Amino acid sequence: MATESTPRILPTEITPESVYERRREFLKGSLALALYAALPAQAALPAWKKTAWGRDESPNTWEEVTTYNNFYEFGTGKDDPAKNAGSLRTRPWTVSVEGACLKPRTWDIDALTKAFPLEERIYRMRCVEGWSMVIPWLGFPLGELLKQAQPTGRAKYVEFASLYDPKQMPGQRWPVLDWPYAEGLRLDEAMHPLTLLSVGIYGRELPNQNGAPIRLVVPWKYGFKSAKSIVRIRLVEKPPATAWNRAAPGEYGFYSNVNPEVDHPRWSQARERRIGEFFKRKTLMFNGYGDQVASLYTGMDLRRYF
Amino acid sequence: MWRNPKTWLFLACLLPLARLVGLGLGHGLGANPIEFVTRSLGTWTLSFLLVTLAVTPLRRLTGQGHWLRYRRMLGLFAFFYGVLHLTTYLWLDQFFDWPDILKDITKRPFITAGMTAFLLLVPLAATSNDRAVRALKRNWSRLHKLVYPAAVLAVLHYWWLVKRDITQPAVYAAVLAVLLGLRLVWWWRKRAGAPATRLSAG
Ligand code: HEM
Questions:
Q1: Which of A19, A185, A302, B142 has the least CB density, counted as fewest CB within 10 Å?
Q2: Is A210 a known ligand-binding residue?
Q3: Domain extents for chain A?
Q4: Is A227 part of any known ligand binding site?
Q5: What DSSP state is assigned to residue A155?
Q6: Which CATH number fits domain A11-297: 3.40.50.720, 3.55.40.20, 3.90.420.10, 1.20.58.480?
Q7: What is the value of ipTM here, to two decimals?
Q8: SS3 call for A219
């Protein structure tokens, strides 16, 4: 794996410019960084280490990443989450790991981020709608958490449940989706070293609109697979029902791997617009993570299991 | 010129475009400006179509014929925003990749519906002048009935493109249903009344 064993350093020791400078739009980027540095400090995350993931990518700006979101719990418009997610309370927060495992446990969010070393990974994120971003995530591999729970032989899939509380999440007052939001992965996908549980972006805690306080990041799948504001992780025997699959089974499959050759029934997936870029770019198989994950699907008809 | 209400209407119809230009200059179009512009222009195309379709019912319900004077301008603005909307698609979405565009139009129901709606509007825009009205005589109003299927297809276009939350297209569909429903009622009444008129005339 491409993890680089740099020594652990404090967030304050990082020169943000060297990491986040965008080659294009240099001026805009440095302005955004200046603003971002001027933001009041949030509850600090434990120290993390940088990794080589995505070193060659130029991340989107903080503003792009935090104002253009799909998070239907706060409304269906792209700018709704940034406007409405202030009502979400992320402390106290617990995440239960349960189901087919020997050591189920309900984790306090802060205990979780202390128990598992955080790392920064810059991943591409491809939305099923045809746009993409590059985001510097902070988190730890989901597999580490699952290993600790010791899955039994019956554990074949992992189910993720997001928070359900219409008072905090006003979008849940409408049945746009079957709440709470549910997602799922096959166990081997969940254990894959690329699969991340993220608690931060850009070296700070996740903003509410990005799925605070803890969310999934599965970079080779369409964005909606990466459940946000997770409260329960359950090891199960059967493929779990997932929110978008239940809403439109013909359009959103269980796997939902990024695949330029399998179109959404209503639009093409061959290209994508990287937010901030003028021209569209070609979408890559498995969002460009084929070297790492293609082997998970050998022999599978990806048209059938879309 | 400034006393003519048409001048003011003309300027008002340009406001949606002016707003987009203003937002663009002020970097107010959000993280995905091209999507923002495409959608805004689509919304205005549909809105102008519906406003145009509201003129005749408005005239009948208020009994005031002067509304009719604005219909042509409103219809042409619907077409104008439609052209801009289509242009953003052809240029900023597809970058004039014609094979891909052709595939898109034939394969994606929402694009097929939008394109058909637009093509139906072309002859209407082309005949929105006094000369065409005179030349086509009764055929002019027959031809311009194409605006009904165009509007229905436009709403379908919107309905089919949203991912999940159909509130907005449903609102437009409801407005269109009222506008077309009124015509249906009037047409029905006229038909029911017609034989009687003929009898008395005979
Ligand atoms: C009379 C003709 C048309 C009308 C009234 C119309 C109306 C609309 C409306 C209301 C929207 C949605 C705006 C929103 O989401 O807020 C839209 C989006 C769109 N339309 Fe049209 N449209 C028309 C023709 C066309 C044509 C001819 C094309 C292309 C061939 C087209 C391509 C699109 C695209 C690509 C979107 C954006 C989809 C997205 O962002 O996901 N439209 N249109």
A1: B142
A2: yes
A3: 11-297
A4: yes
A5: -
A6: 3.90.420.10
A7: 0.71
A8: coil
